[in-house]
Amino acid sequence: MPHIVSISSLKGGVGKTSLTLGLASAALYAGQRVLVIDMDPHADSSTGLGLPVTSVDIGSMLTHPEQYSLAEGVCTSAWNSIAAEQAPANVEDDAAGLGSVEAVRGSAASTALEHMEAGEELDRLVALLAGTVDDYDLVLIDCPPTLGRLTSMAWAASDRVISVAEPSLFSVAGTERTLRAIARFEENTDYSVGAASVVINKVRSTPEHSFRIDEMKSMFGELVAEPVLEDFDSFQRIQGAAYPVHFWPETSAQDFAADLSALYRGLID
Ligand SMILES: Nc1ncnc2c1ncn2[C@@H]1O[C@H](COP(=O)(O)OP(=O)(O)OP(=O)(O)O)[C@@H](O)[C@H]1O
Ligand SMILES: [Mg+2]
Q: What superkingdom heads the lineage (predicted)?
């Protein structure tokens, strides 16, 4: 069974999608086979992976589970041809061979799921993935910034939840809320998320950011993953080009990609 990892935060805009894409890129670079499931109705991961918009989306699959199997929605990311063009010069481990990223796209259709009766939907993603993801090394689920039905379905299917945080007062509070929500989820359902981690993102060299990082380390202890991720200027441009950061041709991305690889190895590998 692959690790199934939800990337969550009850606060918006902190970098859930960016971390999903960053970890997918690190896994691709390490020669792994990755499946990304885009649970956010805004479908930003789908855009960042350059997915075709014609495939069956995850919202339709989960709304009508009797009509679809997962395979009908799985499509190949545009990243694979970028990685293939650069191989074998630019892969971390030649012995592991070339990795791949596949994904099930998100769409606004999944908002309908947020209005289902509590409990009714919880095992739908679990059921969709059961027996069909064994050939992957890793499944990453990009979650919306709310604790609704979509996030609950994702957590039920996951063996790890990563909470993304910025080094700011409001994000520290948001991370506390997210970790409390995970504990409540485990108390109120038959599911355990297995492990939780906090990834600190968009870090700049300022006294305020240093203070907030120390604060989070004292509050969340060993849950805080290393290294923290810097606020990397070119990241939006790389995402806009639907490129995996590890294969970006400019050398300025190398340090950031190396930090993502270190996070990937510590959290998942
Ligand atoms: N480490 C980083 N360095 C620079 N920019 C970043 C970094 N992480 C994220 N960003 C940028 O911050 C913005 C928000 O990031 P992202 O969309 O990943 O957040 P999100 O948590 O998924 O948001 P939402 O809650 O809307 O789903 C994006 O423009 C992204 O490119
Ligand atoms: Mg997002």
A: Bacteria
Q: Which residues have C-beta atoms less than 6 Å from ligand 1?
A: 9, 12-18, 40, 44, 145, 201-202, 229, 231-232, 235-236, 239
Take residue 227 and report the two structure tokens written for it.
């290294």
Ligand nearest to C-alpha 232: 1
Q: What letter represents residue 131's amino acid?
A: G
Mean residue pLDDT of the chain comes to: 93
Q: What is the pLDDT of residues 6-45, one digit of tens each?
A: 999 999 999 999 999 999 999 999 999 999 999 999 999 9
Average pLDDT estimate for 78-90: 82
How many CB atoms sit inside 10 A of residue 101's CB? Answer: 26
Separation of alpha carbons 60 and 67, rounded Å:
9
Which CATH number characterizes residue 163's domain?
3.40.50.300
Tell me, in angstroms, the distance from the centre of ligand 2 to residue 205's CA. 25
Q: Which atom of ligand 1 is nearest to the CA of 20?
A: 18
Alpha helices by DSSP H, listed for the chain, are 16-29, 44-48, 58-63, 79-86, 124-129, 149-157, 169-188, 207-220, 235-240, 254-267
d(CA 82, CA 250): 14
Domain housing 114 = 3-267
Predicted model pTM = 0.96
Q: Are strands 3-8 and 195-200 parallel, antiparallel or unpaired?
A: unpaired
